[in-house]
Amino acid sequence: MLGAYADACATGEILCGRLDAPRSGSLPGVFGPFEYRWRPPETLISVEDYRRAAARRVPRLVWDYVEGGADDLVTVRRNRTSFSRWSLRARMMTAYPERRLSTTVAGVDLALPVLLAPTGALGLSHWSGDLAAARAAEAAGTRLVLSTASSWSIEEVAAGTRTDHFFQLYPGADETATLMQRAWRCGYRALFVTVDVPVLGNREGERRFGYTRTGTIGRTLTLTPREALDMARHPSWVVDLYRHGRGSMRNLLEESGVGATFQSIEILHREIDRATFAWDDLEWIREHWPGTVYVKGVLDSDDALRAVAIGCEGVVVSNHGGRQLDHSLSALDALAPIVAAVGDRAEVLLDGGIRRGTDVVKALALGARAVLIGRPQIYGLIVGRERGVVDVLEIFRAELDRALALMGVQSVHDLDRSWVIPVASPTWDEEPARGY
Question: Annotated catalytic, 320?
Answer without folding.
Answer: yes
